[in-house]
Backbone:
């Protein structure tokens, strides 16, 4: 060990200069911080946190709480910009595109994605999100006209960063409601219902 404040001379002797001995570079975070925990584990969440743009793809199912409507397949994609709040927590602002496939109807939608992400462990993130969107319900039968609707989704889930660029995740507590823009059913004149649904997803995301 180099004595603090001393410098070694060419002849091998030590001379006190009062200067601090520079610390060796351990190859930590790109921003100069150390990404290793005290226990020696690699903090993948902090590495991933420094990326500012993410692209996320998910798949799952959509189960509306309404009689005689079957569970449908769901795929979605989100492009988001990350705004760091603290070293481990961030806000994500994104645009969402999704489509649900069913036996009776399909409904594509576009909208926003607002998400708060909390780093809770080296390789674990907890997130809560809201996704307001515009949807079009396109019925398979020509007897029914397409209907426009407003949708709002709420997500609660976990993501697991794998290195600096990739994360896998799950949103097991994901619900939504759909409100048709037309209050009256054009077929029989009845009031259009508000449809609540359960729609959990699995996803993979990449960060830049």
Residues:
């Amino acid at each position: 060990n180099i004595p603090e404040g001393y410098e070694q001379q060419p002849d091998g002797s030590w001379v006190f200069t009062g200067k601090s001995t520079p610390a060796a570079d351990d190859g930590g975070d790109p921003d100069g911080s150390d990404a290793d925990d005290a226990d020696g584990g690699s903090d993948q969440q902090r590495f991933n946190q420094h990326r500012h743009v993410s692209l996320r793809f998910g798949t799952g199912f959509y189960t509306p709480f309404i009689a005689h409507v079957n569970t449908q397949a769901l795929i979605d994609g989100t492009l988001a910009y990350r705004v760091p709040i603290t070293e481990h927590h961030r806000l994500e602002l994104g645009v969402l595109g999704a489509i649900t496939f069913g036996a009776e109807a399909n409904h594509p939608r576009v909208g926003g994605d607002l998400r708060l992400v909390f780093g809770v462990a080296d390789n674990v993130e907890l997130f809560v999100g809201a996704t307001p969107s515009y949807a079009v319900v396109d019925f398979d039968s020509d007897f029914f006209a397409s209907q426009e609707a407003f949708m709002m989704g709420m997500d609660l889930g976990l993501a697991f960063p794998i290195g600096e660029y990739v994360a896998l995740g799950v949103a097991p507590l994901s619900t939504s409601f759909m409100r048709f823009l037309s209050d009256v059913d054009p077929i029989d004149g009845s009031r259009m219902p508000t449809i609540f649904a359960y729609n959990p997803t699995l996803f993979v995301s990449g960060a830049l």
Notes: The first strand starts at residue 6 and ends at 8.
